[in-house]
Specification:
six-stranded mixed beta sheet; 7 helices
Length: 275
């Protein structure tokens, strides 16, 4: 009886012992697959980091699209207009997809010339599951949001405090900004423009404050050649700042004038919303 128990125990031991090496091999294989998977993820994230320009956070091959925002500071906004404009600009920026570059310009010079954008970065995108451990995407995301929010807030503070200017060179400012932002873009790169302005052009080129809303007449004027610019098939939105002193100018005919101008400059006006 005791020998049978001994044999039975021995057989069970051999069976159990026979499974142990295979179980160990399976565990090793599973662990190896996990490490290999992590290695692939690390490689892909590292490749993405190497392909990103550290100065702009854009892919070195170029941005997926460009969103140009031009804030007209030739005349002040009231508090409600400034807050509404801020919300619309921030909403537009947040809608930008990953690797879309956002360029924000402040038009506050009498001749319409612009310096470098006050903000110019690509959206780094939302961090993935492994980014927090092996990349700085989350930090870039925070810096991106804090950067454009700071730029917008700073700009809105300025347009609340600005003194009314003698000129409002909107066309000149748009030409300057578009040239800086679009000059080196491939033709296939989508472009969006958001203008925050009363859109009343007032410069030696054209004085709409005196009723200059005949587009055909402007095309025949001496100022036409100075108004030419390639808007790169831009989709354009206007945050239309209404002013009591421009009631005779600001109208559907005025918006239509700008729509014709954008069409002539390789752009399309999608919407105009009055504030």
């Amino acid at each position: 009886m005791s020998r049978r128990n001994s044999r039975s125990s021995s057989r069970r031991s051999r069976r159990g012992g026979g499974q142990t090496p295979w179980g160990a091999i399976a565990k090793v294989a599973g662990g190896g697959a996990t490490l290999a998977g992590l290695g692939v993820v690390f490689f892909m994230v590292n490749q993405k980091a190497e392909a990103t320009d550290p100065g702009t956070w854009c892919n070195r091959a170029g941005p997926a699209e460009v969103h140009l925002i031009l804030l007209d500071a030739s005349d002040p906004l009231d508090g409600v207009q400034a807050e509404t404009a801020r919300a619309k600009v921030v909403s537009a920026i947040r809608a930008a997809p990953e690797n879309a570059r956002v360029d924000i310009y402040l038009a506050d010079r009498g001749d319409g010339s612009l310096g470098e954008p006050i903000f110019s970065k690509c959206n780094p995108g939302a961090p993935g599951a492994f980014d927090a451990a092996i990349s700085d995407v989350e930090k870039k995301r925070r810096d991106y949001e804090q950067g454009y929010l700071a730029a917008v807030e700073d700009t809105m503070t300025k347009v609340l405090q600005v003194e009314p200017a003698k000129t409002s060179p909107i066309i000149e400012s748009l030409r300057s900004a578009a040239t800086k932002s679009f000059a080196r873009l491939p033709a296939s790169t989508p472009v969006t423009i958001t203008l925050v302005s009363d859109m009343v052009q007032n410069s030696p080129m054209l004085k709409q404050s005196k009723g200059g809303t005949d587009f055909d007449a402007f095309k025949k004027s001496t100022g036409w050649s100075s108004a030419l610019v390639d808007l790169h098939h831009a989709r354009i939105s206007i945050v239309y700042v209404t002013r009591a002193n421009y009631r005779d100018v600001q109208s559907n005919a005025h918006i239509n004038w700008w729509s014709q101008y954008f069409d002539a400059m390789n752009g399309t006006l999608l919407e105009s919303e009055a504030i």
